[in-house]
Design goal:
Layout lengths: L2 H7 L25 H6 L1 H7 L8 H18 L1 E6 L4 H4 L5 E3 L1 H10 L4 E5 L2 H10 L4 E3 L15 H10 L5 E4 L4 H5 L3 E3 L4 H7 L4 E5 L2 H8 L5 E3 L13 H10 L4 E4 L5 H4 L4 E2 L2 H11 L3 E5 L3 H7 L6 E3 L13 H10 L8 H15 L4
Parallel strand pairs: 1-2, 1-3, 3-4, 5-6, 5-7, 7-8, 9-10, 9-11, 11-12
The structure holds 1,3-dihydroxyacetonephosphate (13P) and iron/sulfur cluster.
C-alpha cells in the first residue's frame, strides 16, 4: 500500500474523548497541501526524502503541519520511539529515543500533555512518572508481545516459588507487573540493573532472550520467563551467516531481544539508542540492523554513507501509530492513558529506582 493510500484510508477515529475544560475538542484543521504547508514542512521532508517519494509528501505534509500547530496550542510534546515511521520520527516528534531515554524525558517533561508515539507500556510508564499530566496514546491497541506474556499474578507466583530472589522487570511490561517487581530495566541498562542488586541470583522477566543475553555478560545467575518479542525472535544465527556471505564486509548490529545465536554473530548488540550511537561512531560502509524496519529508515538521514541492508521485520503494534491518529488524539484530546493510582505508586518505585541508578 502506498503512503498516500495509507493516509487516506485511515479514519481519524472515534475513541473515547475527554470532557470539557482546556482539554476539550478543537476543530479539525484544514488538511490541504498549500504553499505554506510545503514551506513549513520542507525541513522535515529533507530528512525523509530517501524513503518518501516527493509525489507522496503532499499526503503527509498537511498532517505534519497541523500536528505541530496543535502541539503548540495544547502545550503538548510528542515522545516517539525509534521504531516510529520516518514521517513521525522526523516530522512531528519532539523527543526521540529508546525506552530508557523516553522514560527519562517523560520524567523531565514540563508539558501539560504528552502524546506517546510508541506502544502502550511506554505510555503507561509516562503516566506512572507523570500522574498529573494528560498522556495520550494515539491507538490504545498498540500493545507488545512481551507485555502481554505476563501478569501481576504470574509475578506473585514467581515470588512464592523463588523466595528472596529479587525480580527485575523489563520496561516492556504493564504497570500491574511493574508494581509487583523490585526494579525496572531497559535493554540499555539491564546488566547494570541486575548487578546493582548485589544478589547472586536474579529473576529477569519477561524476555527469555534479553535474559539469555544478559546472562552471558554477568556472573549473576539469571532466571527468567518465557516471553519473547515477535519481531526479534524471528531472526536466526543461520540467517546472519547467510548475510555475511552474501554481503562481504557487512557489520551486524543487533538488539538484545534477539536469540543468542543471532547476537553471537553480531559486531555490536545494544538498545535501539545504543545501535544508533555505535553506527554514528563507527560509520561502517554496510550495516545490517537486526531489529525493527523503521530504525534504518530513521537513522539513514543521520548516518550518511552507511548502506543499510534491511531484513524487514515490522512491529505490527508500533505501526498502528500514524499521523492521522496522532492528529485525532490532539484535536479531540482523546484516548487518555489511565493507570490506577495505587498501582502507579508501586510501579513508580521500580521505575524511579532504575532512573536514579548512577551510571
Ligand atoms: P529499546 O529500549 O532498545 O528502544 O527497545 C524497545 C523495544 O520495544 C524493542 O523492541
Ligand atoms: Fe514489543 Fe517487540 Fe514490538 Fe518492541 S518490537 S514493542 S518488544 S513486540
Amino acid at each position: 500500500m502506498s503512503a498516500t493510500q495509507r493516509i487516506r484510508q485511515e479514519d481519524s477515529g472515534t475513541g473515547p474523548r475527554l470532557r470539557g475544560g482546556p482539554s476539550a475538542s478543537a476543530a479539525m484543521p484544514e488538511l490541504s497541501y498549500t504553499e505554506d504547508v510545503a514551506r513549513e514542512t520542507a525541513e522535515a521532508y529533507e530528512k525523509v526524502r530517501h524513503v518518501i517519494p516527493a509525489i507522496e509528501w503532499p499526503a503527509y505534509a498537511p498532517y505534519v503541519k497541523a500536528i505541530n500547530d496543535l502541539k503548540r496550542q495544547r502545550n503538548a510534546v510528542i515522545l516517539a520511539h525509534n521504531y516510529m515511521t520516518p514521517e513521525i520520527f522526523h516530522g512531528v516528534a519532539d523527543i526521540v529515543g529508546d525506552s530508557l531515554q523516553l522514560a527519562k524525558e517523560a520524567a523531565r517533561s514540563e508539558a501539560d500533555v504528552i502524546v506517546q508515539c510508541g506502544v502502550h507500556f511506554m505510555a503507561e510508564t509516562s503516566k506512572i512518572l507523570n500522574p498529573d499530566k494528560t498522556i495520550l496514546m494515539p491507538d490504545m491497541d498498540a500493545g507488545c508481545s512481551l507485555a502481554q506474556s505476563i501478569t501481576g499474578a504470574d509475578v506473585r507466583a514467581l515470588r512464592e516459588k523463588h523466595p528472596g530472589v529479587p525480580i527485575v522487570t523489563y520496561v516492556n511490561t504493564s504497570a500491574e507487573v511493574k508494581a509487583e517487581c523490585d526494579i525496572c530495566c531497559t535493554s540499555s541498562n539491564a546488566v547494570e540493573v541486575v548487578e546493582s542488586l548485589g544478589a547472586p541470583r536474579v529473576l529477569l522477566i519477561p524476555d527469555q532472550y534479553l535474559a539469555a543475553n544478559v546472562a552471558q555478560r554477568t556472573d549473576v545467575e539469571i532466571l527468567t520467563w518465557e516471553g519473547a518479542c515477535i519481531v526479534h525472535q524471528r531472526f536466526t544465527g543461520a540467517e546472519m551467516r547467510e548475510y555475511r556471505e552474501a554481503v562481504p564486509g557487512v557489520k551486524i548490529v543487533a538488539h538484545p531481544e534477539c536469540p543468542t545465536d543471532v547476537t553471537a554473530e553480531a559486531d555490536y548488540t545494544g538498545s535501539t539508542a545504543g545501535m544508533i550511537t555505535w553506527l554514528k561512531q563507527n560509520r561502517p560502509e554496510k550495516a545490517l540492523l537486526v531489529t525493527e524496519c523503521s530504525m534504518a529508515d530513521n537513522i539513514a538521514a543521520e548516518a550518511p554513507g552507511v548502506d543499510f541492508v534491511r531484513p524487514c521485520n515490522l512491529c505490527p503494534y508500533m505501526k498502528m501509530i500514524t499521523l492521522p491518529k496522532i492528529l485525532a488524539s490532539l484535536v479531540h484530546m482523546r484516548d487518555e492513558v489511565i493507570v490506577d493510582p495505587a498501582i502507579a505508586a508501586r510501579a513508580r518505585i521500580a521505575v524511579e529506582r532504575m532512573i536514579n541508578l548512577k551510571s
